[in-house]
């Protein structure tokens, strides 16, 4: 092995040790509330890529080093997240059974809207203007059989359209 290769090999190992120490320092900053967890991990990941550590040692090794440094932080964060989820579920009558030991409510209730707002009433059907225009065109053809056939194809619109036709005839 040449001297240059030996120096480069040692530098990579040194960089990995520096990265390990950097992870511990960031974990301490997070633990003391001086840095956001996500910001710390993102910064470490960017540094690992920039220094070529990911390329040399692999992403799994880099993540293992970060996880080891942040192990306590991750456990605390997960515990906090679990506590928040538990409190949310206890406050929601659809999910409280998960923590109280009660029988789960029916699926229709569990999957319902939590807001309590009544379901919006469907808007009443209104015949589209294009259907009215088509009906009037067919009616002007003076072919009763064609008009009956056309109306049979539009059963929801027929009562309204017939009132239009009656109004036009009466006028």
Beta fraction:
under 5%
- Helical proportion, percent range: over 70%
Overall pLDDT score: 84
**Tally of individual helices:** 9
The separation of the N and C termini measures 107 Å
Structural class from helices and strands? mainly alpha
The best one-word shape is elongated
Biggest sheet, open or closed, and with what strands and sense?
Answer: none
Count every beta strand, where a strand is a DSSP E run of 2 or more residues: 0
Mind telling me the C-alpha Rg?
Answer: 36 Å
What is the N-to-C succession of helices and strands? HHHHHHHHH
- The unreliable regions are 4-8
Task: Please describe what this structure looks like.
By secondary structure, this protein is mainly α. Among the domains are: 3-75, no CATH class; 129-170. Helix content is 71%, strand content 0%. It contains 9 helices and no strands. It has helices at residues 3-31, 37-50, 53-57, 59-91, 97-100, 107-110, 129-139, 144-152, 158-170. Helix 1 packs antiparallel against helix 2 (37-50), helix 1 (3-31) packs parallel to helix 4 and helix 2 (37-50) packs antiparallel against helix 4. The chain is elongated.
What's the topology here?
Elements: H1 3-31, H2 37-50, H3 53-57, H4 59-91, H5 97-100, H6 107-110, H7 129-139, H8 144-152, H9 158-170
Helix pairs in contact: 1-2, 1-4, 2-4
């Amino acid at each position: 092995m040449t001297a240059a290769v030996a120096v480069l090999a040692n530098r990579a190992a040194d960089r990995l040790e520096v990265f390990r120490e950097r992870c511990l320092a960031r974990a301490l900053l997070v633990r003391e509330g001086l840095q956001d967890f996500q910001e710390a991990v993102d910064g470490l990941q960017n540094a690992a890529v920039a220094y070529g550590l990911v390329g040399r040692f692999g992403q799994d090794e880099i993540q293992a080093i970060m996880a080891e440094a942040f192990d306590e932080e991750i456990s605390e964060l997960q515990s906090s997240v679990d506590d928040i989820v538990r409190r949310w579920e206890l406050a929601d009558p659809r999910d409280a059974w998960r923590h109280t030991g009660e029988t789960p409510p029916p699926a229709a209730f569990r999957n319902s809207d939590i807001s309590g707002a009544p379901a919006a009433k469907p808007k009443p059907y209104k015949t589209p203007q294009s259907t009215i225009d088509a009906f009037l065109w067919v009616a002007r053809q003076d072919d009763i059989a064609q008009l009956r056939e056309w109306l049979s194809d539009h059963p929801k619109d027929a009562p309204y359209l017939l009132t239009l036709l009656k109004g036009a005839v009466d006028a």
